[in-house]
Structure of HPP transmembrane region domain-containing protein:
Amino acid sequence: MNLMQFRSSAAPARPKWQFIMTTFIGSFLCISCLEWLTLMQHQLWIMAPFGATCVLAFALPESPLAQPRHIIGGHFITAFIALMVLQFFGNGLWQIAFAVATGIIAMQILRVTHPPAGANPLVILMTNTPWSFLIQPVLAGSICIVLIAWISHCFISKRTYPVYWW
């Protein structure tokens, strides 16, 4: 392989300060809202992969990986697969690896690839979460992220988000 293939041009330009501040406000509000809902309802609305989802939804809103079908679908399918693996095979080393790999190919097949969702099987199998985790925080939280990203981009930064819904 030729090393010249790996040489890149200049790094991308830094976003405008207005967009950086919108990213801060949107992601801050989103995570704060999910934490507040968790405290008020005494049920999980938040999980670690949502932090990475906020990077895509607020800092890279034009990316295909940040679109609602990818955020909601990716989180849902990987969590569903992880819960199936947990129920039928347990949570050992090979089961965790199998759940992650199966989740990745399922996202590819269904055209809902969302990298942060690849962490869902790790969270689920390492903590033995119940089936209710699929609805809350996975589905409810990912829908909340999409709605807050939509509000943030459309009304604060006046950007078009999403590029497509489904």
Summary: Residues 30 and 154 are 15 Å apart (CA to CA).
